[in-house]
Specification:
By secondary structure, this protein is mainly alpha-helical. It is 37% helix and 6% strand. The strands form 5 sheets. A two-stranded antiparallel ribbon has the order 1-5. Helix 5 runs parallel beside helix 7 and helix 7 runs antiparallel to helix 8. The longest helix is centred in the N-terminal third of the chain and has 26 residues.
Length: 531
C-alpha cells in the first residue's frame, strides 16, 4: 500500500452546495442598506468570513512539503500532473498558465488577490454600517472587533504572498512594494497604488490591536467559528515574529497561553480498529482520524473555518478515463514529500496496536475519499493534511491554535538567546515550550523523552522543524520559508515516464514573491508587477 498523500488541482467552485453561494458581489456591497445588527452579523458571516472559501489555493504546492510522482503512464494521472505544473514549478505566469487548455476554464477560485480583496470589502462594509444600524453597543463593538481582526488577517495573507518578506535581505520594508490598502466600504472609480510592506504591516498591527481590545471589552458567547481576542493576539504574535520583534512576539504569545494554555492530547485517542475505522476515547467510532480543528475534540482551537474545498463533492477534475484517487498500486500524481514524512518520529502502520511515537503523521495526514479543494485523497493511503471530517459533524479545517503560541514564543526566545550569546535561561524556557507541545503529540503508552538541546543554533533548527511537523499544509510553510531567508528548494516534475526534469527556486529567488495576476493589473494601471 502506498503511504503517500494525493493532491490535485480541482475546481472548488463546482463543489458549492445549494444555499452556500455568494450573498453579495463586491461591486454591490456599497448599495446594501442593512437596518439591524443582525443584518450585519449575516453580512459578516457571508462576506467577511472565509466560510466555504479557499483563500490561498496554490500556496501549499509551492513548498518543499509536496513532491510530484509523475503520470505513470496513466492518462488521468498525466492530466492531474499538468494541472499542477504552473505553481509547482514556480512559473512567473502561473495564474495565466492555469488557464491553458490543460488547466482550468477560470482562475476565479485560485486568484487569491481577488478572493482576499472581496473578503476585505465585506469587512469594510460591516465597519461602514455599524454606526448606522440598530442594536446594542456591546454586540456592535464585538462585531466591529471581528471585522477589524479579519481584515488584518486578509491583509497579512496578501502582503506575504504578493510583497517581499518583511525581513528580506537588502530590502527596506518602508519602500518595498506591498499591496494596496483599501479601508473604506465605498466602491469608487479611484485606482489604488501599492502601499509599502511596512505600511501594510502597520495597518495589520493597528487593526489587530483595536479589534482585540473591542472584543475583550465586549465579550459575547461566540463559538470558535468567529474570531476572538485570543486569536487576534496569536496573529499579533505571528506578525511580530515575521518582523523579528522578539519581545513583542513573546508578549502576545504570553497573553494567549496565560488564558488558554491547554493543548489537545493526541494520545487520548485510540488508533485504527478493524474495518479501517477509528475510535473516540468514549468507545464510539468514526471513519477518519482525529481532527485537530474539530471543536468537539480539540480544546486548543482559537478560531477555525471550513474552506470551500472541505465540502464533499463529485470528481470535477477527471473528465474522462479512470480516477487515480482510488488506486492502491500507483503513487499519487502529487504527494507529501519524503522529506516531510522523514521528520516525524513515527512507527510504520504495521505496528498498529503497539507504541506509535509521534502521532501527528497519522492524525494530521489523514484518510478521506472526498475531493478537498486543490487536494484529493485516497482512502487507501495517508493523504494530504486536512484535519477534520468532510461533510460530517465536527466541521473545521484551518484556523488558529494554541500550538502556534508555544512555537512562536519558543522561536523568539531562541533568537533572543542567540543575540545574547547563548543565554541558557532563555534556551531552557524555549525547550520547556517545545517539550510541552511535543508531549501532547506523542503516544502515551511509553514515557515521552524530553528534548534537551543546549546549542542555540541547533535548537533553532529543531524548533523550525517542529513548526513544520506541527503545521503541515496549514498555510505556514511557504511564509516560513520566505522569512527563513528564502532558501533554495527543488521540485522534480514529470508528466511521462523518463521525461522528468528538476526545477529549482534559487536562494533569494524573486519568485518567492508571487506575481500579481495579469487580469488584476489590467484593471488597475496604478499597480506595478513584481519582478
Amino acid at each position: 500500500m502506498k503511504r503517500l498523500l494525493f493532491i490535485i488541482i480541482a475546481i472548488p467552485g463546482l463543489l458549492l452546495q445549494s444555499g452556500c453561494k455568494k450573498f453579495l458581489e463586491e461591486e454591490s456591497l456599497d448599495e446594501i442598506r442593512p437596518a439591524t445588527l443582525q443584518d450585519l452579523v449575516a453580512l459578516m458571516a457571508s462576506e467577511g468570513y472565509p466560510y466555504q472559501t479557499s483563500l490561498t489555493q496554490v500556496m501549499e504546492i509551492l513548498t518543499d512539503d509536496v513532491q510530484c510522482n509523475g503520470g505513470q503512464a496513466q492518462a488521468s494521472y498525466v492530466t492531474v500532473v499538468k494541472k499542477g505544473r504552473a505553481p509547482y514549478t514556480w512559473s512567473k505566469d502561473m495564474f495565466e498558465e492555469l488557464l491553458l487548455p490543460d488547466g482550468f476554464t477560470s482562475t476565479t477560485y485560485v486568484n487569491s488577490w481577488q478572493i482576499l480583496y472581496n473578503k476585505i470589502a465585506g469587512c469594510n462594509t460591516v465597519l461602514g454600517h455599524l454606526d448606522k444600524v440598530t442594536g446594542d453597543a456591546g454586540p456592535k463593538n464585538n462585531l466591529r472587533g471581528q471585522a477589524l481582526a479579519m481584515r488584518a488577517y486578509y491583509y497579512f495573507l496578501l502582503v506575504n504572498m504578493f510583497g517581499k518578506p518583511y525581513n528580506a535581505p537588502g530590502s527596506d520594508p518602508e519602500t518595498s512594494p506591498g499591496v494596496p490598502l483599501k479601508l473604506r466600504m465605498e466602491v469608487t472609480d479611484s485606482l489604488y497604488p501599492r502601499n509599502s510592506v511596512a505600511e501594510v504591516y502597520r495597518q495589520i498591527e493597528t487593526d489587530l490591536k483595536d479589534g482585540a481590545s473591542l472584543m475583550e471589552a465586549n465579550p459575547q458567547n461566540n463559538r470558535v467559528y468567529k474570531i476572538n481576542e485570543l486569536a487576534a493576539y496569536t496573529l499579533l504574535s505571528r506578525v511580530y515574529l515575521y518582523q523579528e520583534k522578539w519581545d513583542d512576539c513573546i508578549t502576545y504569545a504570553n497573553k494567549v497561553i496565560a488564558k488558554k494554555p491547554g493543548l489537545t492530547q493526541l494520545g487520548t485517542f485510540k488508533g485504527p480498529i478493524p474495518g479501517g475505522y477509528y475510535m473516540y476515547n468514549n468507545g464510539t467510532t468514526y471513519s477518519y482520524s482525529n481532527r485537530i480543528y474539530d471543536p468537539l475534540l480539540s480544546p486548543e482551537i482559537l478560531w477555525t473555518y471550513t474552506p470551500i474545498g472541505n465540502l464533499s463533492g463529485g470528481d470535477e477534475v477527471f473528465q474522462s478515463g479512470g480516477n487515480p484517487s482510488y488506486s492502491n498500486t500507483l503513487n499519487p500524481p502529487y504527494s507529501v514529500s519524503a522529506e516531510l514524512l522523514a521528520l516525524y518520529d513515527a512507527r510504520p502502520l504495521a505496528d498498529t496496536g503497539i507504541y506509535l511515537a509521534d502521532l501527528r503523521s497519522r492524525v494530521y495526514l489523514q484518510s478521506s475519499s472526498y475531493l478537498i479543494g486543490i487536494i484529493s485523497f485516497n482512502p487507501l493511503i495517508i493523504n494530504f493534511g486536512v484535519k477534520f471530517t468532510c461533510g460530517s459533524a465536527g466541521m473545521g479545517g484551518v484556523g488558529l491554535r494554541i500550538a502556534e503560541d508555544y512555537l512562536n514564543r519558543a522561536e523568539a526566545k531562541i533568537q533572543k538567546a542567540i543575540k545574547a550569546g547563548g543565554n541558557p535561561t532563555l534556551l531552557q524556557e524555549a525547550l520547556n515550550d517545545l517539550n510541552t507541545l511535543r508531549i501532547s503529540r506523542y503516544d502515551t503508552r511509553m514515557p515521552y523523552v524530553q528534548v534537551s538541546i543546549t546549542d542555540a543554533q541547533e535548537l533553532l533548527s529543531f524548533c523550525r522543524d517542529e513548526r513544520r511537523r506541527e503545521f503541515p499544509f496549514d498555510g505556514h510553510r511557504w511564509f516560513d520559508l520566505r522569512r527563513y531567508g528564502m532558501p533554495s528548494i527543488s521540485h522534480f516534475y514529470e508528466e511521462n515516464t523518463g521525461t522528468g526534469q528538476t526545477f529549482t527556486l534559487a536562494k533569494g529567488d524573486s519568485r518567492y514573491t508571487l506575481p500579481i495576476p495579469k487580469a488584476v493589473l489590467q484593471r488597475n494601471a496604478m499597480l506595478t508587477q513584481n519582478p
